[in-house]
Amino acid sequence: MKSLLLESTIFVSIALGMVVSCSAQEQKNSAAEAADKAFRDPKIAAALQQVSAARIQANIEKLVSFGTRSTLSAQDPASLAAGRGIGAARDWIKAEFEHYSKDCGGCLEVKTDSFTEAPADRIPKATKITNVYAVLKGTDAENAKRIVLVTGHYDSRNSDTFDITGDAPGANDDGSGTAVSLESARVLSRLKFPATVVFLAVAGEEQGLNGSQHFAKMAKEQGRQLEAVLNNDIVGGDKGAEQDHTVVRVFSEGLSAAATERDISRIRGLGGENDSGSRQLARYITEVGRTYDVGVKPMLVFRLDRYLRGGDHSSFNQQGFAAVRFTEFREDFHHQHQNVRIENGIEFGDTPKFVDFDYVAHVARLNAAVLASLALAPAPPAEVHLLTKDLENDSTITWNASPGGRAAEYEILWRATTSPEWEHVQKIGSATRATLKLSKDNVIFAVRAVDREGHRSLPVVPVPER
Ligand SMILES: [Zn+2]
């Protein structure tokens, strides 16, 4: 990844007891070279070119054509035949994934996963809810166990959560996010990745995040190695006057929802409030955004979601997975969760006329670039420890080799405790231990794995080893 990381000029001890001095110039050359030849993968750049605003528009308009996609709306054969209701939308999404699969020689495994949700606050009677997804299985047996996932919710609602027949176009919320999952599947299915990519469309979001909860629990129960979840919800770039079409917000939790009392105690002691897995994923997204020309800039928001509001990524956070939410810069509340109408000259309703399809395409490019970068990268290093047995001003970090055998080398990152993003990078080579002439008291460290070409894993912040 091309990054703004500064070259380090410090001494590093790469192997046990060996201290290596790197001049500023050497550092600069190697980092610049790496940035040029390795960080921007031409395969990824070419795939991003294939993302089509016209296709995204057609997909969003198709989703809107089902009239309502309320989770409580019709799924019976007559409604399927009439093309109205969530059942018809579900079948169309599945067929669309199957088309993409046909175009790549059956490379996608297309699945539906239905379950019955018992009555709850916003579910008046037992309701069948179906997630639809496509799996692009990794090409490397070991690395195929690692999964990166993109999701959007295909259900919609209007002013009344319980209205199951009235129009609920849901073009932006969340036809846009569903279109991102679909378009990512279409362009990435032409490539091969060592790790697995899942393209998901969930239902039940508006009734209580039911589809995403079901999927995340299943992933946890099955012990899936879900490394990253990208949730796109309201990425339509509403055409309101105050919209900023150059920016997409990326929300990430600070304290993991799955943190135990022991974790929280450690986080409190070490100042780790800003270093959850989700936050590392958010930082990774900004680096990818700088590396590839996607047309939109990620704006990190260090908060789980919009103020007092929620979304599907939190279902994954609850199960301990790194997950973030993408949302347009400025929402227009006349255009979501509203019956389509004109009142006092104001147009209400979530219809395609307010969606900026070029913007959705930019967000899809950013998502696809992140998915591809992670799926091509080695697994993050394991068991990353900062040695603290002796009081000293140097910092020694050890780790286990990246599982799966794809790492060629490692890099140590660090930043001031007050900095939002990684500021410095030090190449370590293939060693799994390094001592830096830097005090652990003053900075936050992380280690990442790099493959031969230059794809970077998510960074891992060390835990203390006494
Ligand atoms: Zn939504």
Beta-strand share of residues? 15-25%
| Structural class determined from secondary elements | alpha/beta
The main β sheet shows up as: 8 strands, mixed
Distance between the termini: 34 Å
- The number of distinct helices, counting runs of at least 4 residues, comes to 12
Radius of gyration: 23 Å
Q: Mean pLDDT, as a whole number? A: 93
How would the global form be characterised?
globular
Could you say which small molecules are bound to this protein?
zinc ion
Helical content stands at 25-40%
Placed side by side, the strands forming the largest sheet appear as 4-5-7-6-8-11-9-10
Number of strands: 20
Unreliable stretches? 15-38
Question: Can you offer a commentary on this structure?
Answer:
The chain is of the alpha/beta class. Helices cover 31% and strands 24% of the residues. The chain is built from twelve helices and 20 strands. The protein has helices at residues 24-39, 42-49, 53-64, 77-82, 86-103, 171-188, 205-208, 210-221, 261-270, 277-291, 313-318, 357-376, and strands at 6-7, 11-13, 20-21, 108-117, 127-136, 146-153, 196-202, 225-232, 247-252, 297-301, 323-328, 341-343, 346-348, 382-387, 395-400, 409-416, 424-429, 433-436, 443-450, 463-465. The protein has an eight-stranded mixed beta sheet with strand order 4-5-7-6-8-11-9-10, with helices on both faces. Strands 3-2-18-15-14-20 form a six-stranded mixed beta sheet, with no helix packed on it. Helix 2 (42-49) packs antiparallel against helix 12 and helix 6 crosses helix 12. The longest helix has 20 residues, at 357-376. It is globular. The relative contact order is 0.16. The protein binds zinc ion. Zinc ion binds next to helix 6.
